[in-house]
Structure formats: structure tokens, C-alpha cells
Design brief:
Strand content: 15-25%
Distance between the termini: 22 Å
Order of helices and strands: EHEHEHEEH
Number of domains: 1
Structural class: alpha/beta
Helix content: 40-55%
């Protein structure tokens, strides 16, 4: 499998650093953003992100649920993982999004990223084959 590219959106620097380091140790190519605005700038750049991992509470501006909805609308095959310290909260219009409650184990997130990306790649191959 080729390298998996992930975007982590987390406003808390220590949490962001922890998950980014863990995902890099698991051989993912990881991009990071502190808030939704910088996440969208990364997504609209020339980088093909295969999975978004976003916290729900991102401080000021757009929250992670709205970010997930926006990303799903523009890139419907992208894997989306939502994390929160609160009980399960999910964007209603992103039916395939996965949820993890904080604190979570980075290895579990890494495993779910792999599952989502493998499914995405299979879908893209089937679509291209016609």
C-alpha cells in the first residue's frame, strides 16, 4: 500500500502533537491544522488528503462537525473521523464518518484510517473500471 495522507485538525497543541506524532510513527504522511480555516486551505491546496481526523470543538469559527460536512460535500470519498471529549456527536449529513471519544488510543485511530482508505481506494478503482 502506498503512503496514506491524513489531515489532523485539533486546536489543542498538545493533543495535535500527540496524534500527529503517533500517526507519523505509523508511517502516515500527516498534515496538521489548528482550525477549520487552515484545514480547508490545506485541502484546497495541491495535496491529496485521503482521510480527515477532526476534533469537534475547534475554538473560534467553524466547528469540526461543520468542517466534516463541508469536506464530505466537496470530497465525498474522503475518510472522515470525528473525535470529541463529549458523547457521540456526528454530522447527520456524513453517514460514513467514524467517531472516537477522547481519550482514545492513537493505534485505534490509525487502524480506522487504514480501513477507510482501503475502502476508498477500492471504490475509486471500481469507479474507474466502469
Amino acid at each position: 500500500m502506498t503512503c496514506i495522507t491524513v489531515l489532523v485538525v485539533e486546536d489543542e497543541p498538545l493533543m495535535r502533537m500527540t496524534i500527529v506524532d503517533a500517526l507519523e510513527d505509523a508511517n502516515f504522511e500527516v498534515h496538521e491544522a489548528e482550525h477549520a480555516t487552515s484545514a480547508l486551505a490545506t485541502l484546497y491546496g495541491n495535496i491529496e488528503i485521503e482521510c480527515l481526523v477532526t476534533d469537534v470543538d475547534l475554538g473560534d469559527g467553524m466547528d469540526g462537525l461543520r468542517l466534516a460536512s463541508s469536506v464530505h460535500g466537496k470530497w465525498p470519498t474522503m475518510g472522515i473521523i470525528v473525535v470529541s471529549g463529549k458523547d457521540r456527536v456526528m454530522p447527520a449529513d456524513v453517514p460514513d464518518a467514524k467517531f472516537f471519544k477522547k481519550p482514545y488510543k492513537p493505534a485505534e485511530i490509525a487502524g480506522m484510517i487504514r480501513e477507510l482508505v482501503v475502502a476508498r481506494r477500492k471504490h475509486l478503482v471500481r469507479t474507474a473500471a466502469g
